[in-house]
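User: Here's a protein and a ligand (adenosine-5'-diphosphate). What would the complex look like?
Assistant: Let me lay out the input and then the predicted complex.
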Amino acid sequence: MNSKMFAQGAEAKLYRKNNIAIKDRTKKSYRLPEIDKRLRKSRTKKEAKILEKLYKLNFPAPKLIHCSEDKIDMEFLDGPKLRDVLEKSDYQRRSKEIGKKLAFLHNHDIIHQDLTTSNIIQMKELYFIDFGLSFFSQRIEDKAVDIHLFRQALESKHYTIWKECFKTFLEEYKKHANQSKEILERYGKVASRGRNKQAW
Ligand SMILES: Nc1ncnc2c1ncn2[C@@H]1O[C@H](COP(=O)(O)OP(=O)(O)O)[C@@H](O)[C@H]1O
Ligand SMILES: [Mg+2]
């Protein structure tokens, strides 16, 4: 059966074969071959492990079908990237949903680490994808950084609506996340640290 490439991310090429998406982490010639191989292997393994965990938790993410050294076969999600539809959708509702979902992940000590609207697919509900940089952690700091990265993604790609979206997202996150007070306090520090960095 033929498979067709349908997307190329920063890390991988994505092929579709019926209802299966194959994420193939391509070689990066700018990395030393040994390091490149190790990185691709570890990210593939990490992503597969998290997808399995999410399936058990009944969290909306692609179902893992098979995993080899540098390839993951998973359920193909037939919907648009949130990045392409956020402005024309009910973005307050979507932002709320993301807040609740990120809180759920954090309550299970899962840090996404690359939460952007390109890594969310809009189905009947929002599905999170791209867990290659994700990891398990209970640390307040890691959760705060996750929030900060999402804010930066919103700000750069959705600059006309990002403030409203982020506010709604935060309110909902606060409602659902354990230790949300500490996490949001730390987020404030992380954000100001980021601003200082930029200023220099
Ligand atoms: N399971 C999937 N179903 C449908 N589309 C997907 C799926 N996984 C990835 N994609 C598409 O491929 C793109 C790149 O995949 P992603 O996992 O984000 O890789 P990268 O790490 O290279 O960004 C995504 O932005 C999305 O458009
Ligand atoms: Mg991606």
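Summary: The chain has two domains: 4-75, 82-199.
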